[in-house]
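Dear support,

I submitted the protein below through the web form. The confirmation email said the job was done, but the results page showed an empty box. After a refresh the structure appeared. I'm attaching both so you can tell me whether what I see now is the final result or a partial one.
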Amino acid sequence: MTIIAAVPDSPEGIWALSAGVREAKILGTDLVVVNLGLRALDIGGLDQSVAVTVVDRTGRDDRDPVDAVLDEIRDRKATRLVIGVKRRSAVGKALLGSVSQSLLLNSPVPVLAVKVADGDE
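What the results page shows now:
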């Protein structure tokens, strides 16, 4: 039983990482963090009782972020995906693609969507 957390360089990513650690601890399993940002992810302050593996993308031209996460879910036979979400306007939803929205719609496993707290956006 592996949990995948999709973590971009944003407040949503911080919330997803934190929720992923909590979920892995509750379920007694490991956590695989798919780093969707383009810089190294600092996991030093995480709960050490959870085994965490970070999968980095190699650059802007690496796989599509959605494909990267879905590939990890399938390759690692994950049982849950954790993502961070934020409020978006109707126009924003219509005009801009959303990694979170694509993952919600295409994930082959249950998705825990964590909303960023007001003031952290």
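Response: this is the final, complete result; the empty box was a page-load delay. Residues 2-115 form a domain with the Rossmann fold fold (CATH 3.40.50.620).
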